[in-house]
Amino acid sequence: MTQKTFTIGTLAKNAGVNVETIRFYQRRGLLVEPVKPFKGIRHYSERALQRVQFIKQGQKLGFSLDEILELLSLEDGQHCQEAKEIALRKLTLIRERIEGLRIMEAALSNLVESCSSNTESVSCPLILTLMKTSA
After folding, report:
1. Where along the chain do its domains lie?
2. 31: CB partners within 8 A, 6+ apart
3. Residue 28: predicted pLDDT
4. Distance CA 58, CA 123 (A)
5. Which of 54, 56, 103, 119 has the fewest CB atoms within 10 Å, i.e. the most exposed one?
6. Residues near 55 by Cβ (< 8 Å), separated by ≥ 6?
7. What are the angstrom distances between the C-alpha of 122 and each of 10, 79, 85, 103?
8. What residues contact 98, with CB distance under 8 A and at least 6 apart?
9. What does the pLDDT read at residue 65?
10. What's the pLDDT at 36?
């Protein structure tokens, strides 16, 4: 059984990225650049496709490329605890961001409400508050 191979353009298309993304991943050490045969074209394996898909999925989950590189170094499946620790760090960071966004949402909601109830004043409470915080 022969393994399917891809040119860089076909790899990029199948992975849902562009060719420059593939090259960028290679420069970052996330993806190995195959050897170019004499007067030939580089061919990428199905494993390369899976790796690009792994990288994209990791990014969708909020992992940085450095974190994805760290996860890829554990890909033999024998380092579940290390992978869990990386994921827990990311989960903690995401939860902190969510809490920060909730605080921002409440503050902005209060300012919008103060604009709605401010029918007599010439000055907008939202603009005044933003001016105070920037000074």
Report:
1. 1-64, 74-135
2. 22, 25, 48, 51, 52, 55
3. 94
4. 47
5. 119
6. 25, 30, 31, 65, 68, 72
7. 61, 63, 54, 28
8. none
9. 94
10. 85
pLDDT computed for residue 128 by the predictor: 74
Question: How many Cα atoms occupy the beta-carbon half-sphere of 40 within 13 Å?
Answer: 9
Quote the pTM value: 0.70
* Contact assessment for residue 125 and residue 118, using Cβ atoms and an 8 Å cutoff: yes
- Which numeric CATH code is attached to 1-64? 1.10.1660.10
pLDDT score, position 79? 79
Site of tokens 């996860």: 71
Written as six digits, the tokens of 96 are 């902190």
Alpha-carbon gap, residue 113 to 90, rounded angstroms: 34
Give the residue ranges of the chain where pLDDT is below 50: none
Q: Per-residue DSSP letters for the chain?
A: -PPPEE-HHHHHHHHTS-HHHHHHHHHHTSSPPPPPPTTS---EEHHHHHHHHHHHHHHHTT--HHHHHHHHTTTTTT-HHHHHHHHHHHHHHHHHHHHHHHHHHHHHHHHHHHHHT--S-SS-HHHHHHHHHH-
User: Position 1: which residue type?
Assistant: M
